Amino acid sequence: MITLTRTGAAENVALIALNRPNALNALCRQLMQELSETLLKVEHDSSYNVIVLTGNEKAFAAGADIKEMAKLEFADVFQNDFFNNWDTLSHITKPVIAAVNGFALGGGTELALMCDIVYAGENAVFGQPEINIGTIPGLGGTQRWPRFTNKSIAMEICLTGDRLTAQDAKEVGLVSKIFPTQQLVSEAVILADKIAKNSPLIVKTVKNSVNSAYETSLNQGLQIEKQLFQSTFATNDRKEGMTAFAEKRGPKWAGN
């Protein structure tokens, strides 16, 4: 239910696609297990620098598989830790770009929120409809929406189940750019190429620093940033980057 394609100018971009088209890429246990395994494979493969996560033109992911969940009881989801490993994406250290076309509802929106950058196709639709079926978001929807937008928007989205268009999502800060549906993935790969040209070591450091902004106070975040900045002076890539700049040539990253 997952495809992995090597792409990008230097073939160091992993294009991971959810591939359950007959169910609009609904997130079932098998799909999420395969996604987790694929993400970890890419994470531990140094030949990949950046990840692009997408679905198809109709759906990024239309939410969790309700047919699979409907028969479960509290004991099932609690004792078996339902959603276990569904958040692997949030632990990946390499940059992840979500290329969202079509429906990204419920778990689909939450999956996009776990990514570092969200690009949307013109036909993208976001939302948290869990309230309409008697439950709440369980993959971070109630936690990431207020961090990425604000409390009022998060409450409205989660309490009503209303959907947002791509333009709506961009206006509230969920999406950074919108592209024609058929151009979306190629534009995401272009962005991935730009990121992949930089030192993988420093890219991971930047991701770590930016993520700290959502998990700490401003003063704590500034201290983390300062420490990470100082740590780059212990790397060969920092030395190479500055030397190459002074010598007016392209840098050759060693990754250490």
UniProtKB/TrEMBL annotation:
Molecular function as annotated in GO: enoyl-CoA hydratase activity
Annotated Gene3D superfamilies: 2-enoyl-CoA Hydratase, Chain A, domain 1, Lyase 2-enoyl-coa Hydratase, Chain A, domain 2
Keywords per UniProt: Fatty acid metabolism, Lipid metabolism, Lyase
Any one GO CC term of the record: mitochondrion
Enzyme Commission number(s) from the entry: 4.2.1.17
Top-level EC class: lyase
Gene Ontology BP term (one): fatty acid beta-oxidation
Family of the protein in this entry: Belongs to the enoyl-CoA hydratase/isomerase family.
Protein name stated in the entry: Probable enoyl-CoA hydratase, mitochondrial
Organism this protein belongs to: Caenorhabditis latens
